[in-house]
Amino acid sequence: MKTPVHHKARALIVETWQSQANLSLFLVMLVVTVFVLPSLEVKRDRIQLFADLVYSVVLISGIAIAWGRRRLFATAAVISAPALVMRWMPWIAPGVRIEIWSEALSLVSAVAIGYVLLAQVFREGPINAMRVQGAVAAYLLLGVAYAYAYQLDSRFNPAAVESTVGKVTTLLDWIYYSFCTLSTLGYGDIVPTSRLSRSLAIGEAVTGQMYLAILIARLVAMEVSGKTGRDAE
User: Fold this and answer.
1) Does some domain include residue 83?
2) Calpha distance 182→207 (Å, rounded)
3) Beta carbons within 10 angstroms of residue 79's beta carbon
4) 231 found inside a domain
5) Residue 229 within a domain
6) CATH number at residue 195
7) Range of the domain at 117
8) Which among 64, 138, 172, 229 could disulfide-bond with 22, CB atoms 3.0 to 4.6 Å apart, if both were Cys?
9) Residue 183 near residue 175, CB atoms below 8 Å
10) Distance between terminal CA atoms of the chain?
11) Residue 7 scores a pLDDT above 70
């Protein structure tokens, strides 16, 4: 006969496995979004379909990461559900206004899922591979969120950036520019010209560097604290 301790241990194992699986899927889909989709040489409508499918999986798996924490899960689901619906609306009723709403809600949902990721990364417990995956996923998601911000800025101000490689219109183009800025690579082929785009670029570059520094410091502090506690026992 199984005792309450056995049931609790089993539930913990299942919850950990589910969280690990959701996080791994989320990270893989982000890698596809950032590195694979921009490299595909396919027609615009097909790449958009692939991007929407990948985005849907990213959104659902991102929400599922918080499954074990009901309030966090409910908040992420409520925020992200409209974004998922609006993502597919342009296929039913094309229009600039719907696309703008889709991009705005996608930005909000990216921020919400980023909060979920960081809440999981910095929760109490030992430093393990799951935390590292979450930290990497949060960094990639940061770049994607800024890509949506640049895209929204360009919607209202087509002259927000200057480019030597043609007009920057698709999200995949903005993802390229965003990660060049996030990593402070700065090739110079796309240059911010409006006040808002320049502020976003500065904010992203600073945030990217601060994230890495604070993340490493925090994880090291957690590991040292945990090791000290284990040694004291």
Assistant:
1) yes
2) 8
3) 18
4) no
5) no
6) 1.10.287.70
7) 4-223
8) 64
9) no
10) 31
11) no
